[in-house]
Amino acid sequence: MSFELVIRSILLGVGLAMDAFSVSLADGLSEKRLNTGRVLTIAGTFAVFQFLMPVIGWVLVHTAEEKFTALQMFIPWIALILLLYIGGKMLIEGIREKKDRTSGAPDGSEAVSQSGRLSAGELFLQGVATSIDALSVGFTIASYSAATALASSAIIGVVTLMICIAGLFIGRKIGTRLTAGASVMGGIVLIGIGIEIWVKGVFF
Fold first, then answer.
1. Which member of 4, 31, 40, 64 has the greatest number of CB atoms within 10 A?
2. CB of 195 within 8 A of CB of 17?
3. Do 170 and 63 meet the contact criterion of CB atoms below 8 Å apart?
4. What is the pLDDT of residue 31?
5. 55: number of CA atoms within 13 Å, CB side?
6. Which ranges of the chain have pLDDT less than 70?
7. Quick one: the chain helix, strand, coil %, rounded to 5?
8. Is residue 60 classed as helix, strand or coil in its secondary structure?
9. Global pTM value
10. What average pLDDT is seen over the chain?
11. Residue of 125, 109, 140, 124 whose CA lies nearest to 15
12. What is each CA distance from 14 to 18, 118, 151, 201, in whole angstroms?
C-alpha cells in the first residue's frame, strides 16, 4: 500500500469518523461509569462498523465484476458525487447546528446527561447509524485490490477508534459543544478527498 493511499485512508477515516465523534461526545456525557473497558467497548463498536462498511461496499461492487470493468472510467465521477453528497450533508448540518447554538437554541446536553447507561442494542444502532455513509466509500475504493481495500478499511477503523476514544473523554469533560465543528470539519475533509480522486482520475 503506497504512502499516498495511506494518507488518503487516514483522511477518509477522519472525515467519516466525525459523526461517530459527535455521538461519542454525547455518550461520554451520558455514561455514568466511563472506565477503560467501557471506553473501548463504545469506541470499538464505532471502529468495527467503520471498518466493515467500506469492505461490504467493496465486496458488493466486485460481486458484479464484469459490470464493474465497464464502470471503471466513471469511478472518479461516482467518487466525487458520493463524497460531495456525504461531505455536503455533514457541512450543512454542522453550519445549521452552529446557527442554532448562536441563536440560543438548547444543545441537548441536559437531556443527554439525564440518560442512563447505553444498552447493547442502542450502541449497535449508533454504530450502524454513524457508519452507514462509509458503505458508499466501498465504491470509491473499488479499484483497490482486496488486500489494499482491507488495509484501507482497517486504517479507517483505527482512526475512528482513536477519534471516538478522544470524543468520549472530551464529552465527559466539556459536553457536546464540539459537535457542530466536527461535522463542518468532516464535511470539508470528505469534499476535499472527492475532488482529489476526481482530479487524479480524470486528468492524470
1. 31
2. no
3. no
4. 78
5. 17
6. 64-72, 101, 103-116, 175-176
7. 85, 0, 15
8. helix
9. 0.75
10. 82
11. 140
12. 7, 24, 16, 22
